[in-house]
């Protein structure tokens, strides 16, 4: 039979800063020393303690009078300096052999000895960070939380002396009780003391310049918060790990600590970034022994390996590749903010971990699969320099993509984040493609799954006409050896159908450029007709068809944002559309005006005209299509119409005589050439040509 547990909520312990998070873990560790069966968890981003009979007054009394904090002393300081000069770790290893187990555990929270000492960035460089010394701050807070009172001089043994001493003690007692209450409950009415050098974990407690009447103001903080935070941080014991390889060298591992994120702007190059700490929030009540085991493992896996970068941690959380019980990660970036000699734990995103008992579990797993496909390509991108003198060598390839992946992992149900990532990938691909040095070292993006489009434009969102137009154009050549991707980037397909960059200069078939979109669409059409082999289907077939109304708006010069459409063509060309057959909106538009021209000419640009009408030739006429396209682009529409009529008459059918003359708009030829590139439904193409065909005489005999 399960017993009911009393829930104690501490509103002052939250994951808004790294120090408050450590203080929550430290509270569980401190209370667990006296009540081993006490449990702790996070609910609504507030820390809870659960016990059968424990009260908040008992906890406060225990902390004030009985609790003995873990002794925090940097006994390895001189040995660390000697190892730094010798570029080794032998002195620390020699000294640790003569220390107690508890002292060694404190050491291993700060550094792990390999060929050289590897530091835990949470504690700076072995417990110091510039002028900040974590052990000194701990000693300062301990004195303020538990002050010692001296008896008054000359009054020893008298009643008045005892009364004065009692008054002093009561005032100190009231102060420390108020500070403890402020730490646990978040009460902001108590006047907190000044605590120096605590800003690494508590960003709000930094020294503030130009504040108040002095040159600066020291940060104010409850000393109990730092004592509890140190108790929790000392659970982050490091270890030596080895990758899954016989020849791989061992490396230092600290729980839930990963490499720093790559810079996203040139101004971030050279800024001190020592790493990130991904604080796990668990919602299942756990004892201190279980939490200690959780922090010791520090497990976040991406496939069969551990996550080392921030974006890998985010994908691991999305893929449920973390320890059981972890409900959420809070990301803290250990980075420079004001002084170049120190850094602070800046709170960033909250990444929810996928859970099998949640309704969106399958959806989140599929999202993680899509993002995981980028990891092999992302690992091949060059890293940014870390020296501020090399800001001119900033490439900007990795950082923006990593940041976009983390944003998607934070809210995988927001389509706007997927749209941003998809557009960013196309821009990065274009940058790599236009830089010969990048193309020689970096592979192109692998084919993306069609679900990327579904994520960017889910069914509940209205899909703009520009997006439908871009998807149809991007699907041209899907499943063949000549996809549209080959006209946009200098790539070719290998034997397995995967894109690879062409060695040397970009081939002539890459005609995509930053010119006016209508002109670029016509250039792509002309090039694909030129590259069509004799006797083969025209390289104009697509798996995603555009609605007739969309094509009509393009042809009539309606208010389509063609720049946006061209941008999405680049993005959608990265998707492998060979297996995609999306539903097409069926429009019953009448073929009139400019749409009549499309109805006459479009069958000639079909990849297999015989599937439209059985009387059309089985072999497509690439030369005729090129001739008609050239006539259109030079404005000779009557000649283009006549060439089409001759083609149909040679097939045994007559068409009506219509003259266009020179009364059309100046941009009609460019718009007509662009629409001939867009894949359409066969039914719409048949309807368009049927308006031109002269009805055959019916033999009644």
Order of strands across the biggest sheet?
12-13-16-17
Overall radius of gyration: 35 Å
Average of per-residue pLDDT values = 88
Number of continuous helical runs: 26
Strand content: 5-15%
For the termini, the CA-CA separation is: 95 Å
The general outline is: elongated
SS-based structural class? alpha+beta
Please mark out the parts with pLDDT under 50 across 5 or more consecutive residues, or reply none.
Answer: 154-168, 242-251
Helix content: 40-55%
Strand tally, please?
Answer: 19
Largest sheet: 4 strands, antiparallel
Protein name: Type I-U CRISPR-associated protein Csx17
Organism: Thermogemmata fonticola
InterPro entries: Cas_Csx17 (IPR026483)
Could you list some keywords that capture this structure?
701 residues, alpha+beta, four-stranded antiparallel β-sheet, three-stranded antiparallel β-sheet, 26 helices, 40% helix, Cas_Csx17, Type I-U CRISPR-associated protein Csx17
Short description:
By secondary structure, this protein is α+β, with helices and mostly antiparallel strands. Helix content is 40%, strand content 11%. The protein is elongated and about 115 Å long.
